[in-house]
Structure formats: structure tokens, C-alpha cells
């Protein structure tokens, strides 16, 4: 059993120095890539560094940051969640019915909307985790099924219609900002901060790393891995609920077809951020930087006049490069472990 797995299994939230410095170097590398992108687009277009454009970037990456933060918990245990986009749509359309109810006071409608959205997301996440962990079914298959179920349920619930929101107190939140920073993005940063605390400062977080590294060792140490894995998916679902609320506040509507393809962007942000697809290695800060890289890259390519096809090709190439680097790091780690 490895040192970090043993420590976590015994309940000590301890991080080996090699893992700490390795994570720091990976985050630094992503940070350098982000800075280089900013420099390149600043030199090639006059509008990139304007306050309006920077604010637009922050708003545009808000949903992906929140979804990717939740996805980080799942990928750390070696899983994956393909249903986040569809579950977000389901959570939004159900919650929006409370927001559009004229008989409810404004504050109560907003409260119920947030609670229902987060509740639906968490429930779907827990179902994903329970089925995957209890029957040892690959999470890829389970969440693929949830993707279709949630999307179909959203369409059935609304009869394929969009639910519009007219609550002034709620919609004003979607356009508000503090010192030029959109409130939506501040919420995303709070989600990332809370995720960072859970992963780095709690026994629960260290157990997720341990499960990703060696689930059998954690089980033999007397811990119920089903609980931790289910909780990881539940946290991911909770983040989906928050993202649904942010979506409704930004676009003042909830559509049953919203969130299509969002799961791919979230996974891409996590992988680009340095979290291993095999689990056991990654960080919340890296995920934030990964989402920022995707957002800055997409925005900059639009400003220089790149077509949609070119943006897709370049973004796909970046994702493939990140996966290759992850594979190289895994091989290096295996060789070191064999010595």
C-alpha cells in the first residue's frame, strides 16, 4: 500500500511532499499556458484586454467552472459523469416552475428554486454513484443512461417548451457585478474554494484520492468505499444544481435542451487542469485553470476571426495533448513505483 493511501485510509489528511510539489508544478505549467494565451491574444487583437471582454470571459466560463469542480470529485475516484448537462436541464426546468409561480413571494420563489435545483442534481448524482458502486458497473455506462433519462424527463416535463423567468430580484443577480467582477463568476470561485477545502483539508477528500490510487487497499483497511464514491457523485450533482441556477439567472429562462455537450467541456477542463483520468491525482485549482484555458482560447479565437470549425479543431487538439501528457505522467509514476 502506498504512503498516501495508507495515511488516508487511517484517517490522516496527509499529502506526500512529492505529490504536493508534483501538483504545484502541474498547476504552474497550466498557469504559464494561460498567461501565454493571454499575451498572444492581447497582441493579436485590441479588444481582448478590455473590461467588457474580460467580464464576458468570466461569465462564459462560470458554468464550466462549476460543472468541472463537481466533475473533479468524480474523476479523482476514477469515475466519469456524462449526465451533467442533461441533469442540469432537468434541474433547471423543474426549479423554474417555482420561480414562475405568481402566487409565491419573490424571496420564497428564489429559495425554492435554489433548493429544488440543487436537490434534483444531488439526487441524480447519488443514483449514479449508488448504481455504479453497488453493482460495480462502469460509471461511463450508468451516467450515459442517466443522460438519456434526464434529457427525456426534461422534455416530457415541459412538453418541449422553454420556461421563462421574470422575477426581477433573481434576474438582476445574473447581470450584477462587484468591482467589475460578475457575481456569477464570484459564485463559481466560491464553489472552487469550497471544493479545494474539502479535497485538501478533510479526511473525506484524502479518502477520495486514496480510492483513486488503490480502492482495494482502502477497502481492506476497513472503509466502505461505496459511501465515498456515492458521495463524490452526489457532490457532482449538487454542483450541477448550482450551475442550473446560474444558467437561469444569466439567461432568465430554463430550456429542456440546455446543457447539451456541457459534460464534454467539464471533462476537458478537469483533464487539461491536470487531473488524471485514472484517478488519484488532481487539484481544484488545476480545474479552475483548465476551464480558464478553454474559455480564453475560445474567446481569443473568436476575436481573431477563427471559424467555428477551426475553434473545434484547436480545442480538440488541446484536449488530446492534455490526455497524452496525463498518459506520460502515469508511465513515469509507474516506473518510479517499480524501482
Describe the structure.
With 339 residues, this protein is mainly alpha-helical. It has 13 helices and four strands. The chain has helices spanning 3-9, 17-44, 51-76, 84-99, 106-134, 139-158, 168-173, 183-201, 203-220, 225-251, 262-272, 284-303, 308-338; strands at 163-164, 177-178, 181-182, 253-254. The protein has a two-stranded antiparallel sheet with strand order 1-4. Strand 2 (177-178) and strand 3 form a beta hairpin. Helix 1 (3-9) crosses helix 9 (203-220), helix 2 runs parallel beside helix 12 (284-303) and helix 4 (84-99) packs antiparallel against helix 5. The longest helix has 31 residues, at 308-338. The protein is globular, with a radius of gyration of 20 Å. Mean pLDDT is 89; it is low at 1-21.
Distance between the termini: 15 Å
| Cα Rg | 20 Å
Query: What's the helix count?
Result: 13
Adjacency order of strands in the biggest sheet: 1-4
Report strand %. Answer: under 5%
The shape, in one word, is globular
Quick gist of this model?
This protein has 339 residues and is mostly helical.
List the helices and strands and how they pair.
Blueprint: H1 3-9, H2 17-44, H3 51-76, H4 84-99, H5 106-134, H6 139-158, E1 163-164, H7 168-173, E2 177-178, E3 181-182, H8 183-201, H9 203-220, H10 225-251, E4 253-254, H11 262-272, H12 284-303, H13 308-338
Antiparallel strand pairs: 1-4, 2-3
Task: Describe the structure using short key phrases.
two-stranded antiparallel ribbon; 13 helices; single chain; 2% strand; globular; mainly alpha; 339 residues; disordered N terminus
